[in-house]
Amino acid sequence: MIIRLMEKDEQPPWDLLLLADPSKDMVSGYLSDGITYIAESQDGISGVIVLLPKSPVTSEIINLAVKEDSQGKGIGKLLLQHAIDAAKKAGFKRIEIGTGNSSINQLAMYQKAGFRITGVDKEFFIRNYDKPIFENGIRCRDMIRLSMEI
């Protein structure tokens, strides 16, 4: 498994990006400003992560997705660590991430990696998405915000 920078002229892995964020408009909006890394093996692309600079000291992981048949194999953890290392190398002092209240596995992974919950953006998914989102039998309503000093 290698993690590489997505080339500027490369077609984004839409199938993966839309797993993490079902709004193509929102994904398109941050892809142009973000730095995208791809997890790839001889079987093809299995994961993606997008790092978005927010300020001179803060960067945000705005999208992290792993193919459904590749989940549970540590690819998400590798991508997450790669983004943390890349942000640190670029001089950022803080990294942030947000996820839905229904994203139980993601919340666990982020906290195990060292992220701490810093806030809740209530009704984020109600305000920003036309269709209801459900995960783990729970309606995704609120954005759980986490951060880490790096």
Short description:
The protein contains five helices and nine strands, in the order βααβββαβαβαβββ. It has a seven-stranded mixed beta sheet, with helices on both faces. Strands 7-8 form a two-stranded antiparallel sheet.
Q: What structural class results from the helix and strand content?
A: alpha+beta
Order of helices and strands: EHHEEEHEHEHEEE
Unreliable runs, pLDDT <50, ≥5 residues? Answer: none
Percentage of residues in helical conformation: 25-40%
How many strand elements? 9
Going by CATH, what is the homologous superfamily? Gcn5-related N-acetyltransferase (GNAT)
CATH topology: Aminopeptidase
Taken from the alpha-carbon principal axes, the silhouette is globular
Over the alpha carbons, how many angstroms does the gyration radius reach? Answer: 15 Å
Q: Compute the number of structural domains.
A: 1
Biggest sheet descriptor: 7 strands, mixed
At the first level of CATH, what is the class? Alpha Beta
Counted by DSSP, the helix tally is: 5
- Strand order, main sheet: write it out: 1-2-3-4-5-9-6
Distance between the termini: 25 Å
* Architecture (CATH level 2) name: 3-Layer(aba) Sandwich
Share of residues in strands: 35-45%
Integer average pLDDT: 95
